[in-house]
């Protein structure tokens, strides 16, 4: 495990001692401690950055809720693990608050302390750090001129995350995700550039660059006898375009990719209050033979209504349900219900966010068949994905 700076905010001496002792066994790095929110905040202000705060909520003086609010404003705290015995509904609301503060929620620790659970939550931070860099890097967002220069110079490229069979991990397809190969900051995820692109109408340029590169790779793999389904995320800016389907058709023809091998992933919020043009494009994409997946199913407010109204043929179940599955019975029920719903509607259900073998086994017991997640593979650049395909495809690639 990589070097971490961890802050334990806990007023109970025994619980604090047990947590710190366990941390020293499983991670290298600095471990800080505080008995109240005010002490933790003072410590945070005096240091460069904290990767993870393991935080109780009920403390004298400044409680955990106030500490997290102030800590988020400092820009020095990256992620949070809750260690507090509170009602499940209150915990869920607190988790939503943490995310809205711009902090990453890794999960909850129960009392008494569980070392295996702690190790699992700490491991969740590693891919997060890999993708986003240090907290200080996160503060310095690129400027509009940086983004335009990156688009002009072809610095944006697709990374591919495999979709696999849940039982055997056999490769089924891949989701195409945007990454920026910044010449100074390294590989940057969408959190560093999507807002700027949305504000300045640049998403269309990004989408067509990624679509072009993705289709080129899909053609290359097909020539090696591996015909995979590739999926691409559609933003409202693309879905509202009157020339969307015409442009998609032209590129599919150019790269000789069957429309049935392409899926467009669309979040529920993307189609809330959809215009007539948006709805026409959805229908045209399906008439062309492309797949449509409702992304982050269950994360919005009207998923069932949208499934009835719009021509989706796939459901991507939001990964939060998988992360909560072990300690939140309602999440298991929602997963089981979604799998049954997909079966009844004749839709494939792809389960996102699978991180552990335990989750894999539980999802198989619930009837899951298709999945994505760090257990199988992280998003990877083209060269790595080709190597992954060679290793994990059902038949070896031809030279």
Automatic annotation (TrEMBL):
The modification 4-aspartylphosphate is found at residue 56. It comes from the Bacteria. Residues 5-126 form the Response regulatory domain. Gene3D superfamilies: 3.40.50.2300, EAL domain. Residues 140-393 form the EAL domain. The keyword Cytoplasm does not apply. This is EAL domain-containing response regulator. The lineage of its organism: Bacteria, Pseudomonadati, Pseudomonadota, Gammaproteobacteria, Pseudomonadales.
